[in-house]
Amino acid sequence: MGIHTYFRSLNELERITRCPGKFKFEEHSVAAHSWKVVQYAKTLANIEEMNGSVINWKKLYEITSSHDYGEIFIGDIKTPVKHASPELRLLIQQVEEGMVNNFIEEHIPEEYKAIFCNQLREGKDDSVEGLILEVADKMDQVYEAFAELQRGNTEQEFVKMYCNALRKIKNIDLNCVKYFLEHILPDMVSEESMSSIDIRKITEEALA
Amino acid sequence: MGIHTYFRSLNELERITRCPGKFKFEEHSVAAHSWKVVQYAKTLANIEEMNGSVINWKKLYEITSSHDYGEIFIGDIKTPVKHASPELRLLIQQVEEGMVNNFIEEHIPEEYKAIFCNQLREGKDDSVEGLILEVADKMDQVYEAFAELQRGNTEQEFVKMYCNALRKIKNIDLNCVKYFLEHILPDMVSEESMSSIDIRKITEEALA
Amino acid sequence: MGIHTYFRSLNELERITRCPGKFKFEEHSVAAHSWKVVQYAKTLANIEEMNGSVINWKKLYEITSSHDYGEIFIGDIKTPVKHASPELRLLIQQVEEGMVNNFIEEHIPEEYKAIFCNQLREGKDDSVEGLILEVADKMDQVYEAFAELQRGNTEQEFVKMYCNALRKIKNIDLNCVKYFLEHILPDMVSEESMSSIDIRKITEEALA
Amino acid sequence: MGIHTYFRSLNELERITRCPGKFKFEEHSVAAHSWKVVQYAKTLANIEEMNGSVINWKKLYEITSSHDYGEIFIGDIKTPVKHASPELRLLIQQVEEGMVNNFIEEHIPEEYKAIFCNQLREGKDDSVEGLILEVADKMDQVYEAFAELQRGNTEQEFVKMYCNALRKIKNIDLNCVKYFLEHILPDMVSEESMSSIDIRKITEEALA
Amino acid sequence: MGIHTYFRSLNELERITRCPGKFKFEEHSVAAHSWKVVQYAKTLANIEEMNGSVINWKKLYEITSSHDYGEIFIGDIKTPVKHASPELRLLIQQVEEGMVNNFIEEHIPEEYKAIFCNQLREGKDDSVEGLILEVADKMDQVYEAFAELQRGNTEQEFVKMYCNALRKIKNIDLNCVKYFLEHILPDMVSEESMSSIDIRKITEEALA
Amino acid sequence: MGIHTYFRSLNELERITRCPGKFKFEEHSVAAHSWKVVQYAKTLANIEEMNGSVINWKKLYEITSSHDYGEIFIGDIKTPVKHASPELRLLIQQVEEGMVNNFIEEHIPEEYKAIFCNQLREGKDDSVEGLILEVADKMDQVYEAFAELQRGNTEQEFVKMYCNALRKIKNIDLNCVKYFLEHILPDMVSEESMSSIDIRKITEEALA
Fold first, then answer.
1. Are the CB atoms for D207 and D200 separated by under 8 Å?
2. Which residues from B are below 8 Å from C5, CB to CB?
């Protein structure tokens, strides 16, 4: 039915909740998460650019803004499932891509098909833009998990999410990661907290 | 940690929303859905028993009350994904069962392991109890979809859900299905409706 | 209008909130509560059966799954009101039963009336099934209250609910109660907690 | 503990939902309902005063602002229950009053007890202020029910609520009732509506 | 369209959230806030009257019940904005009053215009009623902020709200203020709290 | 405290509701709105580029992703207020900009100040990127209002929002506007609708 179908479908990501099931003080929609990733990525790219990297802003814009569009078709499948077996992870990715491609084939007019394939492709490649997307996506897990722990959420899930996301970030070799770890994260860790968990300590362990 | 971990986890199904993404006038949790399935199944089994069938009530109790427990691990993966390919459907089922088994292995004391394996097994087999569970599960889709259509929800998803569930029900050879189609469904269809869709007509087509 | 009216009404218990008025970190519907009671009862009955008791599974199924159906007519009338005077408690019970009977009279076809009278009767009698229902119902109060206290809820209501429910459970002479007190409750009490209340201590006092 | 306990308890009426169970497009708390009753009563009293009545504004203030305070203790017990039998209605009223009196006895300092007894008394007597309160309370039922019907809610409950409230209003002999029926209600009835119910017609029947 | 438009508009204040944006354990609507202000003011006026003051109850009723009606037109504009500059504060007040006047001009029948101008006027003048309204309005900020801090909310916003409101209250020369500070506030401060903030200390500093 | 303060504040836009007060079938947060604007703008820019325009993607990224950041400080001040008088509109804009500048001054490290001034500036200028932002922002009003009308919302507010947004869009001279009006809007208008309003007709009038 054309690009209208695509625009209209965006609304569905406002109604899909991240991390379903677990008790949370705050619920986040996939749409709001996606917007925050766009924001982090923008600032990370600015930092990267100030340190001499060349950023393809068009690519960065495309891959960050749509990076979770596929969840319209598969929902927020829980991380443990995605990782339950390498075959499953691969197959789920294939299905997600297949459903996105079907959507484009069915709804997007011929002359815009190539553009939508680009927009809705998996963006986390090894380019600087792909890496920034990966950092920004994990940063939002850090922020979400931190806010839960800080308010005294005792679910172990959020300790794991916080630590795993930090570990993934620190292994990415970008100037903006260095800035995040040296200037942004310490401000977060020094915030007042209700948690019985020693956030400073789990942060240091994750970064060790 | 023992059966406490199991009891505690039940709470998560109160926080998992059915049919995520689509606009709905009413949200339903997996826990509430499970309870309604328990209720329908009880009455369906009563009807079946009145018509001369022998019901294994222990088995029926076990399989209906826990039939969606696995969604704690995989969330409400959307129907189209499950059906995107036979391999995927199979693999998702294997993962779900694997995660349930892991849970039992890790948390349930040795002497109760067999019981929990029974309780949390896939119950939709060809026994009368398995068939009643299948009917009850689909009946809740009929009720959910009908309530949305009746209030004027224009999402095509609910037309599909309504018709597909009816088609599956009518192909199950049970006395209680006959009763549902002849005495319960007509009362539903004759309710007042805001829908621009002709519910009577799509019902007849689904049952044709 | 027939059994359809009954099935349709189940939905209302999804919209009735337990313990209205008090501040809670988590809201629970009567439907979700009912489902958890079904689950607890199933496992309690399994434990009881392993210890040599004979369980009437059909009866257990009937009384646990419908045990709060009457709240459709009277809402979740607060416990203190129910107990304000013996006459009131009795009269409220009479009204609830009267309204359930009226419902059956008006809506259920003649041939199913006896079945529905059985299903929707007050189930908490002195049979093993009735006692298991009582334990399962109180266990959900323990779980609900514990989860509030654990997260730092300072409402005294939840201390009372937790202690009263434990006191009622410990006075019921069943093998599954012994198992609950010796193997399940200790795991709960040893969980991490934000509470300024000493949960271990109030647990010991309630069980003393 | 003093008046603080009273002030703090007001918060609970923000969390008690009116008309629990039924499907509604909009939920209303008892606190918000109470505020709207205060507003209607004020305007009704102004109209009454303009027509020559003498209003005791202190009394009107007292009885309208606290008229549902007792629901903190008994919740929003459903209307059909209240009316199930004359004894029950009377007993529930006695319990509500008893619990309010206990509260005052226990928490309110000696020198303010008389004032709180006045404030929290049942206000719907035959004085002009008591009658205005009755009209204002029913007017909010009219507004709530109308808004549901207007949006296409098909629950018969709201038809009954609308008609019953109108019938009670029309039988109260006040100038402000005359104004409401002649000048305010017609504006409501002439609003655009999605309802399949002929609101004009049921209005005329209720007022006949 | 007449007074119906006014009555109908009241509903909008049920849907406007106080203090938008900040994380809160409890959301409050402007309507529920307004009702609590009506309640506090009533008791404050009773206390004042017992100490020999003469209260104009009609005026008190009018100004307290409608004191935030203007937020229907301007929403809950954040306090820092209102105070960002004296011109802005003044202009926002002018706009609010202008929009209220327009509303009256357009919708209220000629013979009631004067009454509505009185009802919807800014009530916080130097009369005893105006001062009581000011105290009651600030008391609700104290209660809202205290309940957040007590539950461990770490947002500095609520510390500021609590302290600023207390400072404004203590500078108002009324007997009821003396009663509040000597008898009500100490009960609040002595409640159990999860906060890492020393509420007693910030209370003393605010009152110093 | 550095960029952390900025990242953390993004969360507040998840909690600010668009169009507060009015009855809506669906609530939208400012964060989710912002994300949809980012998405529309990306596709609009693609269309514009295909028609020969040169897009500064960095600028487009910056201005679209942050275009409502100022609402953290002033909330969603209602459109009628913003337009109540030219002085007010100007002053509100000045205050918003002043508060954003204060935020940057206070929290953003010296070396990133210029970047944040750029990012958080008012982006709706006469450049192609500024115009695309204006179109995308208005398109989300069209989508929000349409979805309400389609479901039978009778609030006149949404008719006005729909028509005004369309009128602003059609007056912007861009190729992507032409595409929207000729290919996307007709698909929207031809969707099934519950509305008693003739959406096709009001669309034609707005575009006339």
1. no
2. 187
Exposed/middle/buried for residue D111 (C-beta within 10 Å: 0-12, 13-18, 19+): exposed
Nearest to D99 by CA among D134, D72, D136, D59: D72
ipTM, two decimals: 0.94
Helix residue ranges, H only, C51-152: 57-65, 71-74, 79-82, 86-107, 113-119, 128-150
Can you read off the two tokens belonging to residue C178? Answer: 């012994």
Question: Average of pLDDT values for B103-129?
Answer: 91
* pTM of model > 0.90: yes
With a pLDDT cut of 70, the percent of chain F lying above it is 100
Query: What is residue F113's predicted lDDT score, i.e. its pLDDT?
Result: 94
Q: Which of residues 164-193 of C touch D (CB under 8 A)?
A: none
Does residue E45 sit in helix, strand or coil?
Answer: helix
**Cβ contact B7:C143 at 8 Å:** yes
pLDDT in tens, A31-84: 999 999 999 999 999 999 999 999 999 999 999 998 889 888 888 777 777 777
Q: What is the Cα–Cα distance from B18 to F22, expressed in whole angstroms?
A: 28
DSSP designation for B13 = G
CB F193 within 8 A of CB F154: no
* Residue where the block lists tokens 């199979």: B90
Number of domains present in the structure of chain F: 1
F187–A5 C-beta distance less than 8 A: yes
pLDDT at D80: 73
Residue B1 has a pLDDT of 62
- Average pLDDT of chain B is 92
Kindly write down the DSSP assignment for every residue of B44-102, as one continuous string. HHHHHHHTT----HHHHHHHHHTTTTTHHHH----HHHHTT-HHHHHHHHHHHHHHHHH
The separation between the first and the last C-alpha atoms of chain A, rounded to the nearest angstrom, is 52
Strand partners, A17: A29
pLDDT category, E153, cuts 50, 70, 90?
very high
Asked if residues B194 and D154 have their Cβ atoms less than 8 Å apart, the reply is yes
| CA distance to partner chain D, nearest, from residue F180 (Å) | 30
- What would the pLDDT profile of E58-116 be if each residue is shown by its tens digit? 999 999 998 889 888 888 777 777 777 788 788 888 888 888 999 999 999 999 999 99
What whole-number distance in Å separates Cα of residue E141 and Cα of residue E158? 9
First to last CA, chain E: 52
> What pLDDT, on a 0 to 100 scale, did the predictor assign at position E142?
97
CA B92 – CA A164 distance, rounded (Å): 24
Where residue A163 sits, what CATH number does that domain have?
A: 1.10.3210.10
Closest Cα to residue C136, out of C38, C29, C54? Answer: C38
Identify the closest residue of chain E to A153 by CA–CA distance.
E152
> What is the least distance, in Å, from the CA of F117 to any CA of chain A?
12
* Bridge partners of residue A29, in order along the sequence: A17
Cβ proximity of D152 and B151 under 8 Å: yes
Residue in chain E lying closest to C193 (CA): E194
Residues in chain A closer than 8 A to B87 (CB atoms): 91
Q: What number is the average pLDDT over the span A164-173?
A: 97
CB contact set of A190 (below 8 Å; sequence gap of 6+): none
SS (HEC) of A116-169: HHHHCCCCCCCCHHHHHHHHHHHHHHHHHHHHHHHCCCCCHHHHHHHHHHHHHH
User: Of how many residues is chain C composed?
Assistant: 208
- Touching chains, F (3+ CB pairs < 8 A): A, B, D, E
Checking if the pLDDT of D176 tops 70, the result is yes
Q: Mean pLDDT score of chain C, rounded to an integer?
A: 92
Q: Where would I find the H helices in F15-155?
A: 30-50, 57-65, 71-74, 79-82, 86-107, 113-119, 128-150
Residue ranges making up the domain that contains B81: 3-207
Give the DSSP letter of residue C16. P
- CA distances (Å), D126 to each of D132, D134, D146, D173, D174, in order? 9, 10, 27, 11, 11
